[in-house]
Specification:
The chain has about 140 residues and is of the alpha+beta class. The protein is built from seven helices and four strands, in the order βααβααβααβα. The protein is globular, with a radius of gyration of 14 Å.
Length: about 140
């Protein structure tokens, strides 16, 4: 089943020079393609919408602060089972629990700065794509 999803390369991935490595891993997956890509800084308003379900949780403010600390690379990725596949390719949030071969398993250092965001469901992908790429059909 062909899907579209949002991927964010977070400020730590950009700062550490991992953009090419991570995008290369995405591009190597058969039947996946990047249909939009943009580097930008995220403002608080967008982050409040994106992370709205986490308001009031202890990690919310540090997360918003981190995500606004530097540029991110936002991508639209399309392909067969891309939502599930990108979650697997990313690995669990905790880099210690992430398997070697996953992005977080190979490059992650701490839970809060975990390199990549990938939508966790078709519903989340649809909502997030509208936030980050409102003009992409």
């Amino acid at each position: 089943m062909s899907q579209r999803t949002l991927v964010l390369l977070k400020p730590d991935a950009v700062r550490r020079g991992l953009i090419g490595e991570i995008i290369g891993r995405i591009e190597k997956k058969a039947d996946w393609r990047i249909s939009a890509l943009e580097m930008r800084r995220l403002d608080r308003s967008l982050l409040e919408q994106h992370y709205g379900e986490h308001v009031g949780k202890p990690f919310y403010e540090p997360l918003v602060e981190f995500m606004s600390s530097g540029p991110v690379v936002a991508l639209v990725v399309e392909g067969e089972r891309v939502i599930e596949g990108l979650r697997t390719l990313s690995g669990p949030t905790d880099p210690i629990a992430a398997a070697p071969g996953s992005i977080r398993g190979d490059f992650g250092t701490i839970v809060r700065e975990n390199l990549i965001h990938a939508s966790d469901s078709a519903e989340s992908a649809e909502r997030e794509l509208k936030l980050f790429f409102p003009t992409v059909g």
